[in-house]
Amino acid sequence: MTRRQHFVIILILGTLTTISPFSIDMYLPGFPAIAKDLHTSIAQVQLSLTAYLVGIAVGQLIYGPLLDRFGRKLPLYAGLFLYLVASIGCALTTSIETLILMRLLQALGGCVGLVAAQALVRDLFPISEIAQVMSLLTLVLAVSPMIAPTVGSYTTVAWGWHSIFLILAVITVFILVGVHFALPNGKAPDDSLSLRPAAVLGNFFMVLKQPQFLTYALVSGTATSASFAYISGSPDVFINLYRMSEQQYGWLFSALAVALIAPTQMNRFLLKRFTSEQIIYVTLLYQCAVGLLMVLGTWAGWFGQYGLIVMLFLFLCGQGLTGPNSTALSLAPFSRHAGSAAALMGSFRMAFGAVVSGLVSVLHNHTAIPMVGVMCGCALSGLVALLIGRRVIQGENHQKTIGAVSEATL
Q: What percent of the chain has pLDDT over 90?
């Protein structure tokens, strides 16, 4: 693989992973306008985000087996086309109920990019390079929060929130062209894999029985879902509570996205000296400490608008380290069932994200406490999952060692 091919592949895979973040981040500044236009509340508009996350969680479980059975390209085409149609539906909606439904369908289509990109990384790159490639993908992923909210805020002011979804549809057309002409096919279709429910569930169960996968999928799902609490709660906190304009909020969201980019690139250098396991453990300890201080300071009134922004920046720095390392460790044990493994891991992440965003909506009390409290809870849950999971992995490895010694003795 030449350097140019390597760059093009990373770029296309990165754009596939940004479909969902763009779909989430770009319309956040439009929340107040959507609520006003559809004669509903901010809390109801937040449910359209929850619906999107539910669609991603469910859709990935569908695409995982399809990607293993039919190869990577065919399911990609189908999912991206559904996303394109649903985006146009979102643009034409006139009620919050229809918007929630269209967002669900949009997620069911767009989530194919998340699963396929991760499966293709496992197909096209050696295991030793997966964590570094994931870091590069996260860099592309991290750029979207810098661009999307700013574009969304100015688009909302200039042409109305409906135009946001038309822009997403146009972007999808360009991604389809890139996938067709420049992306390698990856793993070939496997006719031996059955799509019968019993067989599909059996494959998922086989993946779940792998302690390393389950541990780091849960760590990824719980810890990284903190960003969804921030995404769901920040429009209300900064636009309604602190009276920012849509444009100011867009720039703030872009600035905080830097907290994801710098650690992501630092991860590539950290991996030369430390293992992914070590990086995740230290990062979660750091996030728990920052999260507890953020909750205490918000409750006690220590932070104003700018103090809260600083604490959010410090907390979000950990997201850029936990995500790529936990993803690499989750996928490492698999080759044939990489699609199913990527689907399960992504489903865990988005299912937790849906619960978290819904929880922020339910706990809404016109303060920042629900947002920062849930964010802190995510980091603490991730640390607990890591500590328990590591003991299970060590126990299994110990049993395998004993079994190997016994067989050698016999």
A: 22
The helix/strand/coil state of 47 is: helix
Cβ contact 80:113 at 8 Å: yes
C-alpha of 356 from chain center = 13
Say yes or no: domain 3-183+203-409 is CATH 1.20.1250.20.
Answer: yes
Question: Looking at residue 114, what DSSP letter applies?
Answer: H
Question: SS3 letters for 341-393?
Answer: HHHHHHHHHHHHHHHHHHHHHHCCCCCCHHHHHHHHHHHHHHHHHHHHHHHHH
Full-model pTM: 0.69
Contacts of 258 (CB under 8 A, 6+ apart): 146, 313
CA-to-CA distance for 371 and 360, rounded, in angstroms?
6
**Residues near 401 by beta carbon (within 8 Å), at least 6 away in sequence:** none
- DSSP structural state of residue 101: H
Work out the average pLDDT over 221-232. 84
Please name which of 222, 226, 330, 228 lies closest in space to residue 276, comparing C-alpha atoms: 330
Q: How far apart are CA 225 and CA 137, in angstroms?
A: 18
d(CA 310, CA 303): 9
Q: What is the pLDDT of residue 139?
A: 66
- Domain spans, the chain: 3-183+203-409
Residue (of 279, 307, 293) closest to 375 by Cα position = 293
| CA distances (Å), origin 212, targets 18, 65, 117, 334 | 27, 20, 21, 11
